[in-house]
Amino acid sequence: MSLLEDRWLIPVAVVACASTTLAQGNADSREHIAVHVTAVNGPVVTVDRGASSGIRVGDEVVFKRIGRPRMTGVVLGASENEARVELDDLEGDGGIGVGFSGEVLVPRDRAVADGRAGGTPEHPPWEEPVGTWAPGQPLLAPARSPAPDERDSDLRGRVFTRFLYTDDAHGERTYGRMWTGTDLTWSNPFDGGGAVRFKGDVSYRDYMTGSRTEDETITRIQRFSYVLGGRQTDARRVEVGRFLSSMFPEFGLIDGVEYIQRFEGGDQLGGSVGFIPDYQDDLAATDDLSTALFYRWVEGPAEEVALAAGYQKTWHNGQADRDLLAGSAQWLIGPQTTFRSTVLVDYYDSTAQLESQGFELTELHASLNQRIGTGAGAGIYASYYDWPELLSDEFPDVLPITISDQKVARGGVNGWTRLREGVTLYGRLDAWSDDQNSGNFADLRVDLRDIVYTGSSSSIGAFQSQGSFTDGVGARLMHTHWFGASSLRIGYDAVRYTQSGFLGEQSNLLQHLLRLGLDSRLTTDLDLTVDAEQRFGDEQNSLTLGLRLNWRF
Fold first, then answer.
1. Domains (range + CATH), the chain
2. DSSP state, 20?
3. Above 50 in pLDDT, residue 222?
């Protein structure tokens, strides 16, 4: 029997060949730091781990979505206990909500899996002469920001390549996608203190089912803009080109200009005008117009309290389309306690056909998170979503009954605690409801770091879900082995599904998932991830292969 005929051997062969090739390296491997989403601002989200876990700007993030492909992103910034992440796809929020789980891939030499910050190292005795310093004078001179013409031009960013292939033998179909792109920032390109920002990709997709085959090549420019100002010492910020609003990413991409004025106390007033790209046509330019106004009020030097409000008006093919009100709130209640929320409200006039005239809540995300010392944390969250009625086709294949009736509310809690050195317990429980059904989801797992043996990490968990038509109970095992600059992952899931409305063998399904993965730091700036998944059991038999290559510069 050949390798291609025996589907079970393909995932093993792919990962084994890669791990053998990469067994020798000159950099530390990457650790997967578990995170949960605490705030959603369109394609920009906040997670509940930060610098104290070793997370830094540029780290790769992977979000897990039940029954849907994973989403990837990159860290934009990190405070002690939080990090802001921009999704790789800027066309929407990708179905990410508060409470969703994910992983930040952090080099093991700086990763702190349970969030314990390392102690401050003792500074050696000061040996440099103090010059003309005299008692009573400050040791450090007042800081002075260099003028733009005193700063060097700097190009930073990343180039990424992704590959995904699925062979669904049970459904007699295959799907493949390969894409490559870049995300870069060219700082101070013209000695004026600004920055050129670009993000784009080219992808090829191939889909085959039965005798039908489809393929397409897609080229997207997600961002191409010039930014001037915007630092805390700048009185204004101007961005021109294709971009997301810096204050309300929820307003989506525009081809235009945004101006923000910063006042002495830190408050900001701004607005934008531009055209909306076609989300259903490779982000092609259109004549759909967007205008927006917004204001942000802050309190305290560290912006312990911040409230923002905005309004967006859009036109589609010359006709008035959307009246959107947006708001956000941030309250840093204490060093380890944070509250965040965002809300979107649409106003519908008498021309609306599916929604009632007046104000309608469209989207809400809110979370309260508490760190308990350095060894535990907990959060409570809630979200709400209602499909908006739009003239433009921003959301594909949405039925009228979905817009008029489908409203989904979700709420839950999550938490983690370090039971002892190397043993951490994680839990999540949430419930949801829509216009017709309700359900819940629960997940409990324990992570063992260097417990089985030094250089290993194991995870044992159980979960259950209750959906509209399907209930499931399952268990999950995952083990990671570090070697040199790489780590090898192997996992297994088993789920028993009970389906309502089905008879005979369809009413109860036992399904399995075998995972193999490899993470490797080829150099300090080049990362490789290889994944293979084999699904088998009742009513499923599919193989998925994936590859991610990221080069930072």
1. 30-116 (2.40.10.170), 230-398 (no CATH)
2. H
3. yes
